[in-house]
Amino acid sequence: MSGNIEGKVVVITGASSGLGEAAARHLAREGAKLVLGARRLDRLQKLVSELGIGDGAAVQTDVTNPEQVKRLVDVAVAAHGRVDVVINNAGLMPHSPLERGKIEDWDRMIDVNIKGVLYGIAAALPHMKAQKSGHIINVSSVAGHKVRSGSAVYAATKAAVRMLSEGLRQEVKPYNIRTTVVSPGAVESELPQSVTEADVARGIQDFYEAYAIPAENFARVVAFAISQPDEVDINEILFRPTAQEF
Q1: Long-range CB contact pairs, 199-202, < 8 A, 24+
Q2: Taking the CB of residue 7, how many other CB atoms lie within 10 A of it?
Q3: What is the phi/psi pair of residue 123, to 5°?
Q4: Nearest residue to 63 via CA among 53, 73, 55
Q5: What integer is the mean pLDDT of 213-235?
Q6: Which stretches within 38-151 are classed as H helix?
Q7: Are 41 and 58 within 8 A, CB to CB?
Q8: For the chain, which domains are there?
Q9: What was the pLDDT predicted at 2?
Q10: Which residues pair with 229 in a beta bridge?
Q11: Are 16 and 43 in contact (CB under 8 A)?
């Protein structure tokens, strides 16, 4: 096992598939106490059953609803007396050129990718401030560092996650809270399935089939950040498949 993970209470959003599921499986093996949130309760319950961590560890959560995100964190605190790590992982990636005016997709990305992270921060901070410890991990993207044609809104939301994370880092120093923003490249997940434009979806799917690496790689990165000694604050991790150029 990695140091400094066993026994920690970890909350993960978007945990029913992809990066969130991989992180849950990895951290469970490392001995973390998990409370998992996602919209798809059936898949979440199946995962919790496979991990053998108890039905109460699955909490149906839509991250666009601040009350549901608060409840997710509160369930963890009620069950375990504290919350040590919150991983704000839930996200969407419906790429499209701006000229197509996919306003509904833009709104969904803003609501999930930005507001969902903010709601996770808001839910965690009161508990972490009170206990004078904690770790908030926000998931950005390579797209938060480098924008490409057709990904402007998604890239903007992920850049926002990076800025929120840096502002948070500065604000929580008096409370001994650690912050990490993780920016993955192409990693196997359901993100390509959120693309609503057929021609764009084909290109994204081809790219992921050519380059995407298993989600376990994301899980190991997250575990690395969590496992550092309490006095070490890993603030940002950017990683890509070795073969990914941009």
Answers
A1: 200/95, 200/96, 200/97, 200/150
A2: 11
A3: -70, -35
A4: 73
A5: 97
A6: 41-51, 66-80, 103-109, 116-131
A7: yes
A8: 9-185+214-239 (3.40.50.720)
A9: 62
A10: none
A11: yes
Catalytic positions:
154
Mean pLDDT of 33-56: 94
Contacts of 128 (CB under 8 A, 6+ apart): 83, 134, 136, 172, 175, 177
pLDDT of residue 6: 97
Q: In what order do the strands lie in the sheet with 58-60?
A: 58-60, 33-38, 9-12, 85-88, 134-139, 177-184, 236-239
Report whether pLDDT(1) > 60.
no
Handedness of CA 11, 13, 16, 21 (dihedral sign): negative
Q: CA 121 to CA 87: how far, in whole Å?
A: 9
pLDDT in tens, 78-134: 999 999 999 999 999 898 999 999 999 999 999 999 999 999 999 999 999 999 999
Q: Is 187 helix (H, G, I), strand (E, B) or coil?
A: strand
Give 170-177 contacts, CB < 8 A, sequence gap 24+: 172/125, 172/128, 172/129, 172/136, 175/128, 175/129, 175/132, 175/133, 175/134, 176/132, 176/133, 176/134, 176/230, 177/125, 177/128, 177/129, 177/133, 177/134, 177/135, 177/136
Residue range 150-159: average pLDDT?
A: 96
Tokens standing for 21? Answer: 């599921």
* Ramachandran category for residue 31: left, alpha or beta (phi over 0 → left; psi -120 to 50 → alpha): left
